[in-house]
Amino acid sequence: MQLPGGTNLIRIDNKVALITGAAAGIGAAIAEHFSEAGAAVVVFDINGEGARRMEEKLRQSGRALAVIGDVSCEEDVKAAIEQTIREFRTLDILINNAGIEVAGPMIEMTSSDWDHQLNVNLKSVFLLAKYAIPHLRGHGGAIVNISSVHAFVSYEGNAAYDASKAGMLGLTRALALEHGRDGIRVNAICPGYIDTPMMDEWLRTQPDAAATLRQVLGVHPLGRIGTPRDVADAALFLASDAASFISGTFLVVDGAMTVAGH
Ligand code: NAP
Questions:
Q1: For residues 26 and 2, is the Cβ–Cβ distance under 8 A?
Q2: pLDDT tens digit string along 131-154?
Q3: Are 246 and 18 in contact (CB under 8 A)?
Q4: Which residues are known to be catalytic?
């Protein structure tokens, strides 16, 4: 959503945005896009080196802070919110993006695999919301949860991931309901196939990665897979005042893959 010359059409000047998993992939694209659109960005990631690299990059033209921690750990989340408030005095936007994919047949999963998947992808949204909401209320705060098309379509070997992503939509609705009166909007994005390190990792597990990639391209009516920037554009819209009457819902960003029945 850029005007010729690179100016962002949607602006979030002087807003403070905390983005989880912002050292790589979709989160990194959101961090860069939000920074270009005028926000101060908190890069909260378990990958310390990546987070510090992103902080350095964003500081070349804006305000940024790297916070290293695990989104499924309550102490780390509490500390991340406290550091954000210490540095920027406020918080306007929370993007729950950090996620992992623990794949494999469900009955072969251990209960600790299950807990790890659900803790990183879903419990984290509860924790981040719990500690962020006191700072988001009263001044038009926004939360955007990065779910997946896996919230409503299933692929074999993804039971725990599917459950975590469907759970994110339930939590999105519940938070929108409970905190609408605080002026907080809560929405989700359901991306399809997006070209990120997570997708590269998944391709590496396939017996014939090139054939799988051809098959993936073939199920997209738009003829391509998504870019992290495609998701960042949707996140910027939902986080901004351009979406001021949109709450409790989700936006599918999948190049029409799921309406084509895939
Ligand atoms: P990615 O490339 O793997 O990047 C995720 C980032 O989050 C990494 O920097 C990772 O650090 C960090 N992270 C992982 N666990 C964390 C934790 N416990 N606490 C804090 N940070 C953590 O992933 P992505 O593809 O950009 O995906 C981002 C989100 O979009 C995920 O929620 C994913 O489920 C969702 N999504 C992705 C796709 C897709 O096709 N890529 C499609 C639909 C939805 P490390 O690298 O050190 O683990």
A1: no
A2: 999 999 999 999 999 999 999 999
A3: no
A4: 161
3-class SS at 207? Answer: coil
pTM for this predicted structure:
0.97
> What percentage of the chain's residues is helix, strand, coil (to nearest 5)?
50, 15, 35
- Nearest residue to 189 (alpha-carbon basis) of 117, 107, 95, 57: 95
Tokens 């794949």 found at: 103
Backbone φ and ψ for 184, nearest 5 degrees, come out as -100, 130
What domains, with CATH codes, occur in the chain?
Answer: 16-194+227-253 (3.40.50.720)
* 45 CB near ligand 1 (under 6 Å): yes
Q: Which two tokens stand for residue 232?
A: 């960042």
Q: What is the pLDDT of residues 196-251, one digit of tens each?
A: 998 999 899 899 999 999 999 999 999 999 999 999 999 999 999 999 999 999 99
Q: Ligand 1: does its nearest atom lie under 6 Å from the Cβ of 255?
A: no
For a pocket test of ligand 1, which of 198, 203, 204 has the largest count of ligand atoms closer than 8 A to its C-beta?
A: 198
